[in-house]
Amino acid sequence: MTFCLYFLTVLSENPISFTITVTSEAGENDETVQTTLKFTYGEKYPDEMPRYEIFSQENLEDNDVSDILKLLELQAEENLGMVMIFTLVSAVQEKLNEIVDQIKTRREEEKKQKEKEAEEAERQCFHGTPVTIENFLSWKAKFDAELLEIKRKRMKEEEQAGKNKLSGKQLFETDHNLDTSDIQFLEEAGNSVEVDESLFQEMDDLELDDEEDDPDFNPVDLESD
């Protein structure tokens, strides 16, 4: 059910001039659009159209204002010879309601478009860029170049490390303590060297060949050798 609420203000009585404020029904979030129409009667009204204009407006786009003026002209021509102010105002009221609906529809479409774009962006994040021959070859070229650079750096580091490594002779020449280190070790060990006597306890049990016990042993043979 449509409720129409108009506010009429008389500006003058000769000529008769007044304003009527027309407000649309509440749209989304109680949003409305509004316009104030100014009418002035001529001497031959209603056999001639009244002069009209949009005195003020709220929340209307320029194209909305243009559409309302065209609507007033059309309705005035169709109702020549009859009292027409109520008809004109009612037509504007319906137009304002249509504009509110259009605003709602436009915002819903914008919301859906944003949601669609967000879903597409999320899908791209999960699925990534489709692999083609071109982008694979491009990636492989970059990967090979990076790998080659890593190998070069590693070889350079190993080469540098090899140059800095001293040979045994170089170590001996740079550290003169090395020529006395073995002797020093033996001197420091001194009498602290321990001998495990158990290693020699079973010597008698070993079968050792004694050349002197051999009846065929001839020392001359050794001298002749």
Automatic annotation (TrEMBL):
Stored Pfam families? DFRP_C, RWD
- InterPro entries the UniProt entry points to: GIR2-like, RWD_dom, UBQ-conjugating_enzyme/RWD, ZC3H15/TMA46_C
**Region (Disordered) location:** 194-225
Key words of the record:
Acetylation, Coiled coil, Phosphoprotein
Report one GO cellular component. cytoplasm
Q: Does the keyword RNA-binding apply?
A: no
- Using the record's annotation, list all stretches that form the RWD domain: 1-99
Q: Does the keyword Phosphoprotein apply?
A: yes
Q: Coiled-coil stretches, from where to where?
A: 93-160
Cited SUPFAM superfamilies? UBC-like
The record's annotation in PROSITE patterns points to:
RWD (PS50908)
Q: Describe the function of this protein.
A: Protects DRG2 from proteolytic degradation.
- Identify its protein family: Belongs to the RWDD1/GIR2 family.
The molecule here is called RWD domain-containing protein 1
Organism of this sequence: Sarcophilus harrisii (Tasmanian devil)
Q: List the top taxonomic levels of the source.
A: Eukaryota, Metazoa, Chordata, Craniata, Vertebrata
